[in-house]
Amino acid sequence: MEFETILKEVQLKGIRSSGPGGQHVNKTASRVELSFSLLDSKGLTEAQKELLQKKLSSRLSSQGVLTLQCSESRSQHRNKKIIIERLFQLLEENLKVAKPRKKSKPSKSAIEKRLQSKKRQALKKSQRKPPKMD
Q: For 35-94, how does the pLDDT look when each residue is reduced to its tens digit (9 = 90+)?
């Protein structure tokens, strides 16, 4: 993953934001919307694109565009920094490949302990029953 190349491919757009700020909100475009075309990216390999497309399928548009928004700060510059950090964090998290689980079986001593415990429990239960009168 090439960060500089991806950063050049990202499209940022300023939008008027809601939330705190009073009159300031009505005059400035402090919310930032980030668009990143996953399929057209030159900063990702084909294998990475496929993996991200699979993992981020619910967040991608039909054209393969990832869209993120940020309006946490009153400053557009601060929101740009936050949204770019979020994009790279999202990409890094979803590019990690989980290690395959190795099948394991319980040890002989663990099996023996379990069976002994079951026998003790069964004996306890059987001793609570009233004696049979035959």
A: 998 888 888 888 888 888 888 888 888 888 989 988 888 888 899 999 999 999 998 998
Contacts of 64 (CB under 8 A, 6+ apart): 37, 38, 39, 40, 53
Whether the model pTM is above 0.85: no
Q: Which of 97, 91, 93 is nearest to 6 (CA)?
A: 91
Task: Tell me how far CA of residue 69 lies from CA of 2, 17, 38, 128, in angstroms.
Answer: 22, 10, 16, 67
Residue 69 CA to residue 80 CA, distance in Å, equals 9
Residues 6+ apart with CB under 8 A from 29: 14, 15, 16, 17, 76
Q: State how far the Cα of 134 lies from the Cα of 128, in Å rounded to an integer.
A: 18
